[in-house]
Amino acid sequence: MGILDKEFSQENIVITKFEDLMNWSRLSSLWQVGFGLACCAIEMMATSASHYDFDRFGVIPRPSPRQSDLIIISGTVTLKMALRIKRLYEQMPDPKYVISMGSCSNCGGPYWEHGYHVLKGVDRVVPVDVYVPGCPPRPEALLEGLLKLQEKIRNESLVKKVTA
Amino acid sequence: MIEMETTSTNLRTQEMVLNMGPQHPSTHGVLRLEIELDGELIVDVRPHVGYLHRCFEKHCEAMTYPQIVPYVDRMDYLAAMYSEIGYAVAVERLLGIEVPERVEYIRIIMGELQRIASHLVAVGTYGLDIGAFTPFLYCFRDREKILTLFEMTCGARLLYNYIWPGGVSHDLPPDFIRMTKEFLTEFKPTIVELNNLLSYNKIFIERTANVGILPLETAINYGVTGPNLRASGLKWDLRRDDPYSIYDRFDFEIPVGKGWHGTVGDCWDRYYLRMIEMEQSVRILEQAIEQIPEGDVTSAIPKRIKPVEGQIYTRVENPRGELGYFIVSKGGLQPHRVKVRAPSFVNLEILGELCKGHLVADVVAILGSIDIVLGEVDR
Amino acid sequence: MKTTEEIFEVLKNRYSEDIIGITNMPPEKIIDVKPDAIFKVSAFLINDPDLDFDNLMILSGLDDANGTKTNQPDGSFEFVGGTLSVVYHIESTKHRHKLVLRVSVPKENPVTESVVKVWACADWHEREAYDMVGVIFNNHPNLIRILMPYDWDAGYPLRKDYKNPEFYQGMKVPY
Amino acid sequence: MKQYISNIYSALATVFIGMKITFKHLFVPAVTIQYPDVRVTLPGRVRNRLYVNMDDCIGCDQCARACPVDCISIETVKSVPGEDLGKTSNGKKKALWVTKFDIDIAKCCYCQLCVFPCPTECIYMTDVYEFSEFERENLVYSYITLTKDEVLEKKANFEKFEAEKAAQKAAPKPPAPEKPAPPQA
């Protein structure tokens, strides 16, 4: 591509320090798409309300996917909705992260057997970074999932970056 | 788009179709509205539902009667206790069994706490839609206290699986009565506070009064129930008009909309009615907690629920309106058909009528005042 | 306040050939109506001052599953013949009486009449019955699917012999 | 004009009332739980991750049947006579080797319906809620205490026993007194 193309292909002190800075800034301002699907969305709202206060982790709901880094799939993904979720995900700028919250979006949950209109796991349409189990998960569980995601981002490498 | 001949007397701008949702912060979930606009005036609103259709009725046909209860929770997730009460009452009437006195009292306490919790979400998110963020935080703070009560009773915060056909799964924990009393004394000043913060705010009144007026005739013909119907002026509450459980023992009032700041049946009435209903729920709770008898709560739970061939439709007053269960049994362990009359499903139908002639910004106000839960609309 | 039997007598006198009979499904009693007469019967029920059924509580579509069951080689089954039903639960907010009406249509040609002009709330209920069970309501203003996607072509999910498709728009449906 | 002025006045006055309430809340202790540092103590009945105490499990399959979601899968092998499986803590005699006890916790709906029918109270819900994973496969929990080899061994033992029994039945002379007692179910 350019002169510096090969220069940074190996990790070096500049890269790693810069990487740390990038990762730190990414993980501490994860803006999420304000997007609720089902029961888990209520717990997500409770997480951002006074008792658990999502803002402490830099998570601020944004109305538009184009301004956000994180999408929390909170609830049952139906076939009718799946394509919209895919589109929302595609509209988000890189780097983007996905938390699948609750049994339903993990694998269809209680609806996996007879649900003729339920997508059995959101990972069939978008890649998922962290699976938070629970039906619905406690707000703490969602926060723990977020901390896990932050841990993942912290260990990301600029050079060896695999698109999430 | 409608083609029209443009003449000097009939000069119209081109109509525009605006899509709102399914991802939109103020649609309260996954609802898509197709809004037909003439300039900024709304010509028609067509809701598209089904983005959360979770096949509840198909699941019922494959489950035994007790196994349906967890699925019933997931229908109206803001008032899961009340969905369970409705289902339990339906199955009990189908079987023809009586439940112990204490169970009835527990159900009423749970139901009314749930009503307060559900209305708090309705009021809080309505404030959020209109542009007031603070009431949302206060509402969720108080709702969290109710959830703590539920959690110590049955172990779950949102979806309880607590009220079973014939009884409840656990007895009340020892501290429950004391903590509920504490909550009620703390909560009563909060209603006043919320009223001062939001209800009587001039800006809020300007946004909601005289907006989305629902006349009584239309409301009945469209089958609108619950606070939305009462705001239009009809004193119709199933707790009194088609009594179930033991609501006839309590002394409470059924508030109706009076057009305090505008016309009867406008958004402000619908909103304010929920505030008054919370006060009435507190009244019922205070009485129920004083009167609750001792007794066994699991004795009437049938070991095996196998009703004879028959069908029943029962309804209860959910925080959102008339929640009905239509159960057809063909004599098996599984029901032949369960159909739910979801209050939000019927109430949402009126949206097109309400929005006609208003501005785009009013759609948010009107939709929030109807207070729908998409899980129940789509089931 | 009138009982189902009294209302049945009134209806029988007025529409003798359109009312089939009264069925007992404990604890409810159902009045069976012919499909092509449901509109005029319900219009009478709402307009008559003594009856005044102004509120349609619920309208439900049912697959009665009473046809002959044939097993398919792949383990599934199919019903041939039989009926689909539409059940109307109505009440009067003034007189406080309730009534259950039922219309049964053959599964091969499930056509009945719409009551949207009588009770406006029947609109979405009928669309749901069409969507889930496949009953077609004549004279309905906008009879399209409501809960399922508009391009769903695998049949009506709440029929007992419904088979789910393998794929929908490239997404795998079964677990 | 008078209306205009009074509108402005009431708007300012009501906003001021609201602001007063907000201001008062500055001096109310905060309700926020500083989660990773502070954890609330959960009540005793709390329902989170399922746990199975395999020492007490008799492999009766009742929890799997009660589950509305079918997230529990159990496979058992009958023990052959002479094997001692021990007793459960409430004195029930075990007769089955549990060769598979998987709970797909990703499917679980935390309804607690599996807990009530258990005769030995070996399946219960704990207060562990922090178990999110990067991979979905890790959410399938296996609770069996037998190793893979042991499972194969038990299966082989049982098949051998069955074969012997069938051979004895097929044999022309019925050796009635020596016939081992059938395994207790």
In short:
The complex is a heterotetramer of chains A (164), B (379), C (175) and D (185). Helices cover 36% and strands 10% of the residues of chain A. Chain A has 164 residues and is α/β, with parallel strands linked by helices.
Any overview of this molecule?
The complex is a heterotetramer of chains A (164), B (379), C (175) and D (185). Chain A is an alpha/beta fold. Helix content of chain A is 36%, strand content 10%. Chain A has 5 helices and 5 strands. A 3-stranded parallel β-sheet of chain A has the order 3-4-5. In chain A, strands 1-2 form a two-stranded parallel ribbon. The mean pLDDT of chain A is 82. Chain C has one domain: 2-Layer Sandwich (Beta Polymerase, domain 2). Helix content of chain C is 18%, strand content 33%. Chain C contains 3 helices and 11 strands; from the N terminus they run αββαββββββαβββ. In chain C, the strands form 4 sheets. Chain C has a 5-stranded mixed β-sheet with strand order 1-2-7-6-3. In chain C, strands 4-5 form a two-stranded antiparallel ribbon. Chain C has a two-stranded parallel ribbon with strand order 8-9. Chain C is elongated, with a radius of gyration of 18 Å. In chain D, 28% of the residues lie in helices and 14% in strands. Chain D has 3 helices and 5 strands, in the order αβαββββα. The mean pLDDT of chain D is 81. At the A-B interface, helix 2 and helix 3 of A face helix 1 and helix 5 of B.
